[in-house]
């Protein structure tokens, strides 16, 4: 009997030792993604008003990427691209509210299959087929995510199994309209906000931006709570934390646009054992499709050959490293018919617009915003500046070229200037090659408008989808 008990204890000890060693050997991951927060609306990225002490601390102790770009400036296409490691037109989820197909391989599924505990809490937007990538998830699963989407973040971390490495996809609803954080923790004074030059500096615009800042502050607060919980559990030192946004802010000329105001994202990586610490900043270009292969490499898991990104793990060890010379993004249907493509290098941004006859004023929620209302008044009074007029322009150029070093806001189109024809040709070739390599198409029958382009209100039309880019007519 005693020998049997000893045998059982040895087996139990062996499995306990194996499980704890496995959990300690491989890093944990906490991936935190905001909703509609612009890249420069975070304190560590230069915003002098908004309060983001917790993200700023992660940046000060980790690495801040100053040239991280999304593949789409729309919620679900951006998130589906991140989790699939593929561009929107390549993964079958190019348009807003189209689910990721079952044929695609979400990278958390590979982590799960290789011993990781995986969980999702908060905003979803990925479709039902992606549920299989997570051991626990909140989407349509009886959970209340709360107004900002962060209600289950700390709870899920506390209730995780302690014998496995873990991956958490924590998604907020902050800072998506309508606003819900005007009385939460930090309340910003509208008189102190920064009003971009392409908006009308009015009282209603300032209050709109102040409410947006309140949402950012709430998001940052919960980032801090996640870090506190990781510290309490004693696992912070073996956890890689990534903080980013899914697209630009929900304001005119930002969300859905292919300019930096729509496609550039804040991107902070913290992880003492995996990256160089001490306020490291890198100018290296990275794309959202690079996230999946990077996390998989850090976890010791092979990425599928179908993934279209490149791991940036080398940059985490050396901020001077460069893994790519350009990034690519796209704008497809998001409330309105659209087909734009862009390529961005360190110096230039090139835009190809297949629907130049259509204005590009932003999504419906932005159309209904106080900031847009203020711009409409200035337009009706014929007082628009060139920067403010951008969201109303029609027809738009079929091609745009910007020198982003001299013109960081992308206000001056250089495509027609003789001195830039060689650059224009080079950028055009880069984009055309990428489109061919990734199977991009320009369907004749795209999904049409479902909302009014002036008011943002729903149109009385039959809501049918056209042909998505990457699919055959």
UniProtKB/TrEMBL annotation:
Q: Where are the transmembrane segments?
A: none
Which PROSITE patterns would you find in this protein's record?
SULFATASE_2
Q: Which GO terms describe its molecular function?
A: arylsulfatase activity; metal ion binding
Q: What keyword terms does UniProt attach to this protein?
A: Calcium, Hydrolase, Metal-binding, Signal
Q: Which Gene3D superfamilies match?
A: Alkaline Phosphatase, subunit A
Q: Which residues form the signal peptide?
A: 1-23
Against InterPro entries, the record matches this protein to:
Alkaline_phosphatase_core_sf, Sulfatase, Sulfatase_CS, Sulfatase_N
- Sulfatase N-terminal domain: residues covered: 27-301
Q: Which family does it belong to?
A: Belongs to the sulfatase family.
- Protein name (database record): Heparan N-sulfatase
Native organism taxonomy: Bacteria, Pseudomonadati, Bacteroidota, Bacteroidia, Marinilabiliales
